[in-house]
Each structure stands twice: as C-alpha cells, then as structure tokens.
Amino acid sequence: MKEDKVKNKVHLKYSGKLMRHWYWCVLLPLLLLGLTAAVLYVNTTAGFIVGGFTGVVLLTVLLLDLYYRPRVLSELVDFANRYHGVEHEMLKQFVIPHGLVQTDGRVLWMNDRLAELVGKKEGGHRNITAFFPELDMSVLSPREDGGNAEITHGGRIYNVCMRRISLDEMLRELPGVDAAEGEISVVEIYFFDITEINALKKENFEQKPIVGLLYMDNYDEVVDSVEDVRRSMLEALIDRRITRYVSAMGGLIKKLEKDKYLLVMNQKGLTGMEEDRFSILEDVKTVNIGNAISMTISIGIGLNTPDYAQNYEAARGAMEMALARGGDQVVVKDHENLTFFGGKTQRAERNTRVRARVKAQALRELINTKDRVIVMGHKITDIDSLGAGVGVCRAAQETGKPAHIVLGDINSSIRAWVTALQGEGHEEKLFLTHEQAIEMTNQNTAVVVVDTNRPAMVECEELLYLTKTIIVLDHHRQGTEKIENASLSYIEPSASSACEMIAEILQYYDEEIRLKPVEADSICAGIIVDTNNFVAKTGMRTFEAAAFLRRKGADMTRVRKYFRNDMDTYKARAEAVRHAEAFMDCYAISVCPSEGLESPTVIGAQAANELLNIIGVKASFVLTEFNQKIYISARAIDEVNVQIIMERLGGGGHINIAGAQLDNVSIDEARVKLKEVLTQMTKEGAI
Q: Could you tell me if 525 and 388 lie in one domain?
C-alpha cells in the first residue's frame, strides 16, 4: 500500500522564474563562503566565527527548501485550480452569449447567456441549427479569418461572430491520442444583439433629406383644350391630387410656378413612392373635366448628397433627364446612379415648331464658324442614320463648308444607297473611313452625331475627343450614358426618326435649300423604315416632313426599289417569324438565323416588325448572333414600352423601337435572360 502511494505520488519541481528565485537563494550563501575564506585569511578567529554563521545560513536555506518546497508548489497548484474555476465561471456568466461548436454544428459548450437564449439549461450536445437554422454548414465552415452572419431569433436581431480554433497542437501533446488526418478544429461563436443599433440605423436612413422637382409636361396644351370657365377647376383638381399624394407620403410640396412644384421629403417617403411605383403618374392622367388631352407630369429627385442645396442640384439634373427622355416619368438621381420609373406612354407630339427653328438657326451658326463638318451615326449604320447624315451634309454644303459622313463596314441595308450617293459627283469624297476622319478632325471641325446620343454607340468614338464642337441630333430617349459637353444637343423623343428631325431642320436652315433626288430619297427612306411604312410613331409632323421631301424630289417608287431584298434574306426573315415563341401570351420571342447573311441584325429588326402583325402580340423580340455578340431587336405598337425593357439589358432606344447588345452569352442564355427581365418587370408593374 505504501509502495502504491509512492508510485502514484506526483513529483513537482520549480521551473521558470520560481527556479531562478531559488538559484539566488543558494547563490547568496555561496557568496558568504567566499567572504569566510577572506576573513579566515586575515584573522583565524574571526574567520571561524564568520564560517560558523555561514554554515548556519546555508543549513537554514536547505532546511527551508526541504520544508516549504512541497507546500509552495501545492499552494500554486491550488491557486491555479481556483483561478481556472474563476475563469470558467466568468465565461459561463459572460454577458454576451458565447459557445463552442464543432464544424458540423454539434454544440460542445455554451455559457449561461447562450443557454438562456436558446431556452435550454444545457446544450444537450444538439446541433446549433436546431436553435438557429440560419447557421448552416456553409456559415460554420472553418475559416481562419473568421466569419459573420446576421440572424433573427425571438424577435431580436443578432450579429453572430465566428472564429476557428485549431486543436491540432493540443491533441499532439495528449498522451495516448493520435490525431486523425486533416485539420481538427472547433468554432467559437459570439452573439451580439444589434436590434437597437439596426433600429437606429433604419431611423437615420429613413430621415435622410430628399429634394425633388415636379413639372407638368403639357400644361399649356391641356389648359388650352378646356373651356375658360373650367380651367381653374382643372388646375385645382390636379393640384389637389398632387398635394394629397405627397402629403400621404410624409412630404412637403410647394408650388413655384403654374406648372412647377418643389418637393421636400425623407427617405421613408421616397421608399413608399417607389413601392407603389409613383402611382401619381397614372392618377394625374385620370383627371378629366372635358379636357381633350390628359395631363402628364415628370418628377426629378436627388438624394444622398451632403445637404439640401446639392440634393436640389441633383434633382435638377434628374428633371433634365426625365424631360430629355420624353417626360411622363420619374428619375431618381443618387450620385451618378439613375433610376427610372414610368415612361410607359408615347410622348405627345409638339404642335409648335419653335424648337426646331431655334435648333436649325443654332446649327447654322455653329457650322459657319468651322472649316469642316464630319457626320457620324451609330455603329452598324442603318438608313435612318445614313439619311440624317446626308441631310446634315447638304445643310453644311449650302453654307459652303465641306462635309463628310464616317462609315465603318458597309452592310447590305445601305450598300445601294452609299453607291448611289457617292455616284452623284460630289466635289469632295462624301464617305470617310475611321482613319481618314481622325486625320481630318481638329479644333476647327464640327462633329455632328445623328441617330444616337450614347458615346459608346457612335461610329467612331475617337472623334468626340478631337474637337470641342460636338452637335447631337437624335430621336431616342436619353439614358444614363450621354455625350458630354455638346455645343448643341437636340434630342426629341416625340419624333419618329432622325430623318424627320433633319427634314424639319432643313426647312428652317435655308428656305431655298435644294436636295438632289437621291438625297431626298435617302432621308425619306429613313422615315419609312423607322415608322414601318408610316404605321408606328407617325404624327402630323411626320407627314409634313414627308411632304417637304416629296416637294424636294423624293420618289416613293424609287425608295421602294431600294428596299427590295434577295431571296436568302427573305427566307431568313420568314424563318424567324415561323419559329417565334409566345411568352406570357403577349410577347413574341424568336431567333433570326445569321449564317450566310451579310447583315443579320437588319433582318432581325424586320422580323420583329413582322411579328407585331400577329393578333395578341404586344411586343416582339428577335435575337441575332453577329460578330460574337447577341443583338436583340425589340418592337411594340402602343401597349408596351420596349425601351425600358432594353435598358434593363444595357440597351435603349425608343418607346416602341429599341435594342440591346449582350456580350459573352449564347443565344439560349440571352433568351433566358430576356424572359427573366420580362417576368421581373411584369411582377414589379413596370410594364
């Protein structure tokens, strides 16, 4: 029995700083021995006295060590045990819920606060997902940099912080334990209650100041269509609906002019407006007390700037964008990000030509101050772009300025026109390549962009940076990307085509302007193509422009001959129509074959127009693969705004004629993406 106790006895010894303390206790008596030797050398009697004293000290140190060493070590062990108990108790009573789980989610240990949180006295070695389903395996993956997850439990929001703790080193030091292959670790988790913080963040976000402007797009036209005695009533009804709507959203509205308002609201009010997609746009249109024209409004909103003044400037920029896109919509400007709402209807045609006359005079003045004019349209030039360019060149030549059109690859849709125009015997070469245009362009050159307002879409973007005189003439709605610092910008979304705008400008540019027959034909052809033979987007001014061109020598018979296609082109268009798919019972989606065709995108656009002749089709979309891109041609009559659909895909255009280009996708992927956008916008009520 005694031998067993000896065997089981734990032998402890000093180490570390405690061992160094013992060394000094032994060293001091040894120094006294040296002192004894020195004294003995001087005086024998004194040496023996000091030697005796030194012996007593050395013996005392040895006896004290033998007596106190086990007691000191025992107390140290006891202190360590008690300290460990205090530390463990502190962790158990830690105010922040805290625990240890395996990487598979099995609970190893939890403190009292976490036990209270899950409603258990002990973890019971259950899986953590039984208490918090959000903490699945993907969240608990052992990452060295830790991780965070936001969860909701018991009506409270918690930020869960996780940290991986490796057990490899500890397991290697345990006798009788062999570590398995791979890393062994546990996850330490903390639960921080952020409910109040999130509530304060939300409150702060909802109270952010927002400034907006509200304009009535067609105030004069609507008021003029009502009898005098009813005008004040109409104004009062519209004003009341606008005021009630803004007030219901917690905003303040102040009338600045007869058709202009200033809005002040917070983010919460804006969120409410966005959720109902600014129903005031449609609500105002329902006001009718005999007016022949419905009132439409535009709203520009600025937010997330340091103060109200900068928000107001942002709102002005948003309003300019809304009006440039045709009105009847809301533009929200957040720094450089623009969000659009509404814009479902065609912009009302302006009866007055004052704007066209002013722009024509401004164009003439700019051209007169320059030595040369270079015109370019968009990439993959069509007849509307070409015809508009021809009209601008004729205007420049009337004032004695040389003018040229920049062309890239000449596709089949314009080849016959290019040949006919070049064969007219111009004094200078009419068409230029990119390299020739870049060489000719300098600060004394006027660069005119027609049929597009996006820099990435122009035929030769380098020209925009070689001169300060840039003129933009376009009929497409303006998007987030635009040509900056244009000396003259005339964007008229109500126009049917760029050629219609050019025809109007030519009438005011010079009353005696003369057009060659092929020039008049090309401008007229642009109108015919973009209106689908005077069916789509056709207004009174469209026919007036066509009549002007007819007087200047345009011949519809000649134009029709230019539009004839070869057999392969006709078959490809018929094939696209034949394989069209009905989606959501109102959208026609098809793919135009591109093999063996020189200009498949043009055929795709023609097929999209053909699909609109099918009963029940509100909009058509034809996808074409060309030059390693997917081109989408979108067409509609009047029920759907295809422009806002194409904007979701990175494109744009007009309310019933638009398109987009997709990179790095296949035809099937593009079709799926288009369907997803149509489904999402339908759920949102955007279309």
A: yes
- Do strands 329-334 and 297-303 pair parallel, antiparallel, or not at all (unpaired)? parallel
192 within domain boundaries: yes
Domain that includes residue 415, residue range: 354-562
Candidate ranges 3-12, 50-59, 225-234; pick with highest mean pLDDT = 225-234
Instruction: Report if residue 127 sits inside a domain.
Output: yes
Mark whether 592 and 649 lie in a shared domain. Answer: yes
Query: What DSSP state is assigned to residue 510?
Result: -
Q: What is the DSSP string of 331-360?
A: EEEETTEEEEEE--SPPPPPS--HHHHHHH
The DSSP secondary structure of 437-473, one letter per residue, reads HHHH--TTEEEEEES---GGGBS-GGGGGS-SEEEEE
CB half-sphere exposure, 409, CA atoms < 13 A: 7
Same domain, 175 and 234: no
Least confident of 140-149, 389-398, 583-592: 140-149
Chain-wide mean pLDDT for the chain?
A: 83
Give domain status of residue 567, yes or no.
no
Residues 257 and 296 in one domain: yes
What is the pTM assigned to this prediction? 0.62
Instruction: Kindly report the backbone phi and psi dihedral angles of residue 306, in degrees, each rounded to the nearest multiple of 5, phi listed first.
Output: -60, -30
Number of structural domains in the chain: 5
| CA–CA distance, 379 with 397 (Å, rounded to integer) | 25
- 577 vs 90: CA distance, rounded Å: 76
The mean-pLDDT minimum among 62-71, 210-219, 480-489 falls in 62-71
- Cα–Cα distance between 499 and 185 in angstroms, integer? 72
| Gap between the Cα atoms of 630 and 663, Å rounded | 7
Point out the domain boundary residue: 527, 562, 597.
Answer: 562
Q: Is residue 637 part of a domain?
A: yes
Domain boundary among 309, 342, 375: 342
Angle among Cα 563, 566, 572 to the nearest 5 degrees reads: 100
**Residues in the chain, how many?**
687
The CB density around residue 70, as the number of other CB atoms within 10 Å, is 11
pLDDT band at residue 93 under the 50/70/90 scheme = confident
